[in-house]
Write a structure and sequence with these properties.
mainly alpha, elongated, transmembrane
Amino acid sequence: MNDLQYRIRRAEFEYESVKKDKRTAYLLWFLTGIIGGHRFYLGDTGRSTAMLFTLGGLGLWTLADVLFIARRVETINRHRRATIMANHGIIDG
């Protein structure tokens, strides 16, 4: 195995350990959506704190979030993967 293959495997392993799961996000939305549990899981601490103190924007943010969770998880995972690849010196296309 050459150095590039090793770095790619190591980066992919690191990514697998930090990527977020859509099913988990939706489950957290279902169980704790009104207090922003799904947003805490996704690392959106500012918004989740706002949801916590406003009870999900009186429920409006909570209802709207169900439409955007999948896209938000994909965006977060794409960003995390790109960051990890860059940290390992791999250009990800």
